[in-house]
Write the structure tokens for this entry.
Amino acid sequence: MRQWTESIIQALEGEEALVWVSILASSGSTPRGAGARMLVFADGHSEGTIGGGAVEYAAQKQAEKLLKEKTSGTMGYSLKKDDVASLGMVCGGDVKVYFQYLEGETELPLFYRLREACLKNEDSWLVRRFEQDKVTAMVFVGGDRILFGDGISGEEVSGLLKAEAVYRVGEPSFYAEPVGRAGRVYVFGGGHVSQELVPVLAHIGFSVAVFEDRPDFARPELFGGGASEIFLGDFKKIGESVTLTKKDYVVIMTRGHQADFEVLAQVLKLPLSYIGCIGSRKKIEATKERLTEIGYPKDAYDRVHSPIGLAIGAETPAEIAVSIAGELIRHRAESGAGL
């Protein structure tokens, strides 16, 4: 979402028109559902995807047409093989797509606010009102439920603010999509796996912070620009540097078992959304014994995802990073984390 917002701002600031393509609703089997988005620019290039294939190709051509006409509109696409109006696909579903033409500086304050929200650890949404299948108002709703923008009331957004995109049919109709989610991933340790993991997590929409006690492993360039913050502190006293909330994720992969244990013993006292720790099954059993020795109940370790990551046979740092990212995606989807 951050890069998407930045692209819109750059285009509008540069007086370049674009069309913002959104899937509002889908039924049956479709490549992507509500919340998928794509930007089509006046120079012909596009960013993002609404699922690829015939739907995306048709939508891109429609966006190019609307760019020339300087207008917005709604289109429905059928993915049923035998439907006369279909795209010849066999998925068996239907999608409703909105094409919003953007030009000039009128909407810039709203997108500036969206960009700001992407940098914060807060829940936030963009809500659009549709009348006769065209957007007539847009507002930003912040984590504190404060509206930024005109034309939509607080009562009208009630029930729309979910972890996934929501399309409320009616006249007018409303479409709300998450912009930012509260819940940061704190990666403890800046070693090789962390250096692979942080950019991947940032790319898939997580806000990521790194905590290290070695200056050489706390340099921003090691993490491909994916770390929103880097903390240089003491693993024995993480509370002096960071404040963890119930919506945060903790990934523990420090330079050694002792530092891992020191971090784990502290975070197990907190009501976090997710705790994961790298290590072998032998290490797990030893950790459980140590926790019991210092007064933790025997089931304390049950909260910990360890060995961390999906079981996909990962071996290299890059592969391990992918497996961990997959587990965090699953946790986010299943728990609705961020709301």
